[in-house]
Write a structure and sequence with these properties.
This protein is of the alpha/beta class and 315 residues long. It contains eleven helices and ten strands. The chain has one domain: TIM Barrel (Alpha-Beta Barrel). The structure holds flavin-adenine dinucleotide (FAD).
């Protein structure tokens, strides 16, 4: 089922989860264990992150080609196939612009269609990981809105090259939104103009970057509605687990941590897990009371805390 269908049909609060593929060479069993652990809280759907290929080929002065590094976490599509077909839980495949040609993206979409996966989160990806050169003769998507356009074109039967007897597709496409603005955007107003470009290109819903103060989400929804964005906006949250994250979260995700949370954790460092869990529980409560259509958890493959939290909101 598509994400939009889940949202339309929901009678109880919906919860979705985002997981990451195992590092290259590691067993997929870790992922299967995670999905088993999530089963009791009935995931509405599970997102699987994508990682742009860091492989690049360097032509040395003597003409030989040297391979540098490569994709550290491959397997997004395969993992979605396992979750969807073995567990009958819908999945959302993260697809990136950066590092992929349009041709590779079209191939991935065909593969997804064969697997019965119809949900995509269309993302640009981040510059530092974008090391794979795409030949100048091939085309690429640069912004997430370009990728949304490509998927929606395929939905209406438009392949990159004309194909006789090509089917039409039915992908539901989500995009990312940033309540505390995307780090490259000069301000929230311009970032919302760009978010609207993605929606105008056909995005069916938005899922937000994590935030630790619900006020950011509610203000963002208000501003987005004022900017003419009418699709569902799903809040994304994460449970704080350790003191290291007081530095790593703002650094990696360009968001603020509220004073009250930082003070509580700094004063009582032995109880960070408990404090983080209580904080996230209050966030979920507030989001659901405020009318959020679903709560999306960035679980980073750690299920216990999130399962405990979600159980409180399920009968
Ligand atoms: P875009 O929407 O393309 O926006 C990127 C920047 O360009 C913004 O500042 C925007 O304001 C600006 N912009 C957009 N369109 C235009 C335009 N036409 N002209 C000028 N400026 C424009 N990364 C991964 O590598 N893998 C993942 O699986 C992954 N999952 C994510 C899931 C969620 C829910 C979120 C919020 C982020 C995720 N990311 C992931 C990170 C994401 O790739 C980065 O945040 C990236 O920097 C931006 O991606 P985007 O799709 O929002 O880009």
């Amino acid at each position: 089922m598509k994400v939009t269908e889940h949202l339309e049909r929901a009678k109880n609060p919906l919860f979705s989860y985002e997981i990451v593929p195992p590092p290259r060479g590691r067993s997929v069993q870790d992922i299967i264990d995670i999905v088993e652990a999530l089963k009791p809280v009935h995931p509405a759907w599970i997102d699987v992150t994508a990682h742009s290929s860091s492989a690049y080929y360097n032509e040395k002065e003597d003409g030989t080609i040297e391979r540098k590094i490569y994709k550290k976490r491959p397997g997004t599509i395969g993992i979605c196939g396992i979750i969807q077909n073995r567990f009958q839980i819908d999945t959302v495949v993260h697809l990136l612009c950066l590092g992929f040609s349009k041709e590779e993206t079209e191939d991935a979409l065909l593969e997804l269609n064969f697997l019965g996966i119809h949900n995509i989160l269309a993302l640009r990806g981040d510059g530092p990981n974008y090391k794979k050169e795409i030949s100048k003769s091939r085309s690429a998507n640069y912004y997430a809105s370009d990728l949304v356009e490509q998927v929606k074109a395929l939905n209406s039967g438009k392949f990159l090259d004309e194909i006789e007897g090509g089917s039409k597709f039915d992908f539901c496409v989500g995009v990312a939104g940033y309540p505390e603005k995307h780090f490259e955007a000069p301000n929230l107003k311009l970032d919302l103009i760009n978010l609207k470009r993605k929606v105008d290109a056909g995005a069916d819903y938005v899922v937000t970057q994590m935030f630790f103060d619900n006020k950011h989400y509610f203000e963002f929804v208000k501003e987005a509605r004022a900017a003419g964005i009418t699709v569902p906006i799903i809040p994304g949250i994460k449970v704080l687990k350790n003191t290291t994250q007081l530095v790593s979260i703002p650094k990696n995700f360009y968001i603020d941590l509220p004073d009250e949370l930082v003070e509580a954790v700094t004063k009582d460092q032995k109880n960070v897990t408990h404090i983080g869990k209580e904080w996230a529980t209050k966030q979920v409560q507030g989001l659901l009371e405020g009318g959020a259509p679903c709560v999306h958890f960035y679980i980073m493959n750690d299920t216990n805390t999130v399962v405990d939290i979600v159980k409180k909101f399920q009968k």
